TrEMBL record:
UniProt xrefs under CDD domains: RRM2_LARP7 (cd12542)
Database matches in PROSITE patterns: XRRM
Listed name of the protein: LARP7 protein
The organism's taxonomic lineage, starting at the top: Eukaryota, Metazoa, Chordata, Craniata, Vertebrata
Record domain XRRM: where: 4-117
InterPro entries assigned to the protein according to its UniProt record, in alphabetical order: La_xRRM, LARP7_RRM2, Nucleotide-bd_a/b_plait_sf, RBD_domain_sf
Encoding gene per record: Larp7
GO MF, any single term: RNA binding
UniProt entry tagged with the keyword RNA-binding: yes
Pfam family, one: RRM_3
Keywords, comma-separated and alphabetical: RNA-binding
Entry GO terms, CC: ribonucleoprotein complex
Length: 136
């Protein structure tokens, strides 16, 4: 089914320098409110954060001065036409992801690939160097 349109839950974050990873942004904002999704590409200077409720977005906007000073971010709640266009983007991205062809493996092919992966992991583990340090 996918995300349902709710007005006032999308916050745009703008930064003067590249933003940290998706997880770092989510962790920084999750302290204040429930984050549903962080939409960004690695190294971008702006991203969109979807919160679970409009109240969560408002909580972040009210306490955003301390986050802004700490991280040098600028926050903006999407409204009107910008919000409509972003929700369209969400639906288009979702359809593109769902319509991607995926490689289908069945039966023995799947088992062989799994065994090969396990063998590779095992050889990587055994080839690690063990270093002993001498405490004086």
């Amino acid at each position: 089914m996918g995300p349902q349109f709710v007005s006032g839950v999308i916050v745009k974050i703008i930064s003067t320098e590249p933003l940290p990873g998706r997880k770092q942004i989510k962790d920084a904002l999750a302290v204040l409110a429930d984050v549903a999704y962080v939409d960004m590409l690695e190294g971008d200077t702006e991203c969109h954060v979807r919160f679970k409720t409009p109240e969560d977005a408002q909580i972040v906007m009210k306490s955003y001065k301390e986050i802004q000073i700490k991280n040098n971010w600028k926050f903006e709640v999407l409204t009107g036409d910008h919000e409509q266009r972003y929700w369209q983007k969400i639906l288009v991205d979702r359809q593109a992801k769902l319509n991607q062809p995926r490689e289908k493996k069945r039966g023995t092919e799947k088992l062989i690939a799994k065994a090969e992966r396990m063998r590779l992991e095992k050889t990587q583990q055994t080839s690690k160097h063990i270093r002993f340090t001498e405490d004086n």
